[in-house]
Amino acid sequence: MHHVRCVILALAAVSTLSAAVAMPHNVLETFAAPTGLRWSQAAFLKDSGIEVTYNTSELHHSGDWVKVAWKGVLEPQASDMLAVFCPPDAYEIGGAAVKYANASDSPGYLESGAGSTALRLVNLRCDMRIVLLRADTSTVIAVGPVLHNLNPNEPTGVHLMRTQEPTEMLVQFTTRDKGQPVVQYSYAADDAQRTQVPATTTTYKASDLCGPPASTFGWVDPGHLHTAAMTALQPGRQVFYRVGDAASGIFSPAFSFHVPPVVGSDTTVRMLVLADQGVGEVDGSAQAMEYFPAAGVAQLMVKDSRGASSSGLDFSLVLHVGDIAYARGFGALWDAFLFQQQELSSRVPYMVAIGNHERDHPNQPSCIHPTMDSGGECGVPFEHRWPMPFAGPDQPWFSFDHGPVHFTVMSTEHSYEHGSPQHAFLTADLASVHRGRTPWLVLLAHRPFYIDADDAAYGPEAKQSTAKQLQMALEDLLAKHGVDLCLAGHHHSYQRTCPVYKNTCQDQSSSGRRGIVHLCVGNAGAQFYNNGFPETPNWIMHEAQLTHGYARFEANRTHFRIEALDSQGDSAGRVFDEVTLTRFAPNLNLFTDAKDVAAMARAEMEVKARALREEERRKKLAELEEQLIEAETTARVQAWVESKVTDALGSDVVQRSLQQRLEQERKLLEQQVHEELNRERQLAEEAERGRREAIDQQKLELRKLEEERQQMEQAVKAKQQQEEEHEAQRRFAELAAKMREADEWRRREQQQEKERREKGKNRVDAGRPKFSFKLGYSQMKLRPVVGVALAAALVRWAVSLHDYSGLATPPRFGDYEAQRHWMEITVSLPPSEWYRNSSRNDLGYWGLDYPPLSGYQSWLCGKFVQRFEPKAVELRASRGYESPFSKFLLRQTVLAADALVALPAALAAAVVFGGGSNGRRLQLLVALLFSPATVLIDHGHFQYNCIGLGLAMGAAAAAAVGHDVLCSVLFSLSLNHKQMGLYYAPAFFAYLFGRCLQQRTPGGKVCAVARLGVVVALTFGLVWAPWLRAPGAAWLDVLRRVFPTQRGLYEDYVANWWCTSSRLIKWTRLLSQARLLQLCSTATLATAAPAMAMQLLRPSPRGFLLCLAASATAFFLFSYQVHEKSILLPLLPLSMLFGAEDPQLLCWINVIATFSMAPLLQKDRLGLAAIGTVAACIAAVQIAQIATAKTDAPRQHRGGTPLLSGRRIQQRLIQLSFLGCVVLLVAFVMLPPPQHLPFLYDALIVTWSFLHIAALFAYVYILMLQEFHNAGKAKQP
């Protein structure tokens, strides 16, 4: 199961961070998480009763354990996993999860669909949510409730740091709010008189970082970082402290540490040393960058620091030589690392050097290693979270003294060449070291000077090439100043050299140049490299390529002991390498020069001076306490005197005198009160009189106003009555004119029909209407047509500037990536491999699933893109390619398809179905070209529906005017472009077959059917030729891809019967997939059959359009595997039908069609584009209608609108429909849904849209019945 987890997590890894070298199977691998995905809701699991629950709904402290249980997964997969998101909605907006757990690790999950696990959660200062998802399909299966964080201001990430002043100690911690952060400390655990010091606060924003993932999907708010300094500490004393907020009273538990000894004193210090650690989880879960051994190293260091050493000394320092948390742009990992290390870092000062995974990024101007190793952090989180005594901003080099050791810390990620600021610092710092005080000189540099790593094939970033650069730039300088030890990491191994100089071991006993011992401790958690040279270099003294652990030092003035510890399994705590460095350090009293003696004396005097100052401070506190006691004594004396005076006042004489005086004052006060009451009474009476007079005046004015209002109402009513009478007369006149015109038109039609019948008695195709496209085009004026086409192109171009499906959402992106991938496949592989799974064509990643004509279209567009930007369609190397220029090229291919296919077809349809009026033809052309749903899907979401719909539109126009062969060719091409053209197949079949049955002789009928059959067979044969000729029945591969049945009943939220009714009837539970296929087929054919029967019996052009609308709507409402975008198919014939007959009704239909796709458009961030296209459609239709009214006489379409003939009723219904759409959209955008119903608004939008589409379906059938009746009357003699 461990390997299954690796595969699942690697499927969704961020490609920009997959730079790790492939490791052998016996080595723990780096876990990469499915970050940055915008998870899609699984349609086939929507109706299931999946439930995710916790044993608690509240989080109180960092590290709380939460038990998670889930059940009801119908088809559990090995790729199912639990993901923790913070904030709770991060999975909806593209944020990365903070940790993952494999659901299949729960025993029995793959059999029962239920399981449980326990997760330990770090306090990230926000609420959390646990989501059950499927990694290999980027699918959310179920969403758990919100875990409420009740303590967001808990001090977390507490860690100590040294300054360059030995008697100071920094402490940093994190909270959500700024507050009043302080540190309180004392030398006794129960000391109530703690010294309180305010902390300075800093933070950073996503915009401060260099790029993704740090600034995008990996971003987690770091909160406020508080740093405080504890000063004037006495060396060797134990200090107790706590951190928190003085305003709220929220504090951490008490911690303690020992103040480091005096620098230069004859003491022994012990230190822990490590590098390249990262974060390891102890609950079996994984982080975005997971190194499981890191947890064992952290636990062993804590155990080691608490145990007694042979010398009885506590550890007084931790040195971490770069690659600290391996956050790589995922902010939650910094909090997880600090939580992992807090038990150690809160007791021992933790000093760090910067590594490549903290800083390196191409967007850093001063970066000498322009790789993506920091994931876009560029050192910003490092400098804020580890405020070392740096030389300056973005200058992370410094030095400090600790006991007998001087540490110099450099950055191998900045320039260290001669002339650089860092080189100048190293030169000055090494020259200033006083070897009498600090006989040992140690350098910290993340990248090693000497390393056994055979990685020459890695180019300029290879560890050997970097080592050579470091040797050339700095080795002479280090040797000159007698550096004893160089600590490094970067290479994930433990390696120790001899005292080496210029690749040669040096004899330390001779009087010649002393060599430098190089120690690599990069084995603290990250995955191993195990890439040593075939022959170990002679300067390597000990090497462990496959052992995790750390090192510990023990140093005094003459000896420096190094021990390497194993942290793995039963070997944990085993010392696998040890060495002691010795240095000549004679007795200070006998051999040290006067300068050294003075320095030591000065250091001791400074310590004594600090102690004296501390004593003086305590004396002052004692004096203040004495003054406080004296003040309290004075207060007690004063209280005693006051009590005595009160006793004296209690005598009889004093009491009588006081009573007499009080009586006199009472009488005087009563007299004053009586006079004041009289004055107030008089004022109140005067105010009451004024108020009554004002009320009477107001009543009089109100009567006058009421009379004026009644007079005005009477005048208005009279005027309205006159206007209504005039309007009624005008409407009656218009209606009479329309009726006369309709009677005249019907008479002409009957006369023309009679003439056609008489002329065609001897012809085989009797009754076929004659039509000339050339004549129809010539009758339309060029200027309005060009204007409409340019305006439609402008709307499409504006929509193409918005986002598209799957923008920047790896690993599968969306429909834009699917179209680009098909271009990549078709231009790189022969047609016989387009639909076949192979090493060069992974059908699991957007395999081609449209018919061959779509493949030819992808090949043609791919060749065009390849001509200008070959990388955009490079086989296997171009996945997720989204350069601005490639997006521009792909957008232009859709515009070209619209211009070459959809525009000519729309012109043909306008000429055929627009009647004899140029204005009505122009009106229909506007309705077809400004359809908002089609524009949004093709030019926003990104597809090529304009080709299939344009071919179907041209076929309908050809059929309506009797060009049956052309109709058959065009519709066959439409079916071969997208299989959804089958929505129209019943209507085309019924109309063409009905026309064949109208032939006068049986032979004529058979010839007509055979002719159409041969045309269809030839068209399909030409399109499918590459697969029909290919060996191995390649055409079967095409059929399997074009007609899959495993995708489910419907996708996402579709406004059809199955999705709407699934709230009450769980279809996927009640019926198997085979039964559902049978039920959908039966329902679709049953609802489309009446329309087919009418056209078989009495075919007519207008009845054909109604049959197209009925057939496509039946498929949309009742067929299997329907997508939201399928609404475009019934929308096309409805536009051809009502574009000229009833523009107002068509505008309403366009609004409902666009509204039904609201969840999809919101996911694609096309909300603003949707509003704009709908507004453009309504405006264009209104302008065309006004222009038509000026040029053409009013004309009533055939059949009328029996249910909506009353214009006022129609307007009221449309207004009510619009109001419902607006209310639902406002709630969908502005109001969050209830937590237990996260998809409430999606369901309401689908239900509201379904009711409208079902009503429209019934209305189309009513019009069909009327047309069927009219066609029957026309045939009567």
Outline the structure in words.
By secondary structure, this protein is an alpha+beta fold. Helix content is 48%, strand content 14%. The protein has 34 helices and 35 strands. The strands form 8 sheets. A 7-stranded mixed beta sheet has the order 24-25-26-27-31-28-32, with helices on one face. Strands 2, 4, 6, 7, 9 and 10 form a 6-stranded mixed beta sheet that branches. A hairpin with a 3-residue loop joins strand 33 (549-555) and strand 34. Helix 21 (985-997) runs parallel beside helix 27 (1073-1097). The protein is flat and about 125 Å long.
Largest sheet: 7 strands, mixed
Count of separate DSSP helical elements:
34
Average residue pLDDT: 83
C-alpha-based Rg, rounded: 43 Å
What oligomeric state do these chains adopt? single chain
Q: Any low-confidence stretches, pLDDT <50, length ≥5?
A: 1-47, 308-312, 585-597, 760-772, 1193-1206
From the N-terminal CA to the C-terminal CA, the straight-line distance is 81 Å
Helix % is 40-55%
Tell me the overall shape: flat
What proportion of the residues form beta strands (DSSP E)?
A: 5-15%
> What is the strand arrangement across the widest sheet?
24-25-26-27-31-28-32
DSSP E strands, number: 35
Secondary-structure class: alpha+beta
Please describe the structure with a list of short key phrases separated by commas or semicolons:
6-stranded mixed sheet, alpha+beta, 1277 residues, flat, 7-stranded mixed sheet, single chain, 35 strands, disordered N terminus
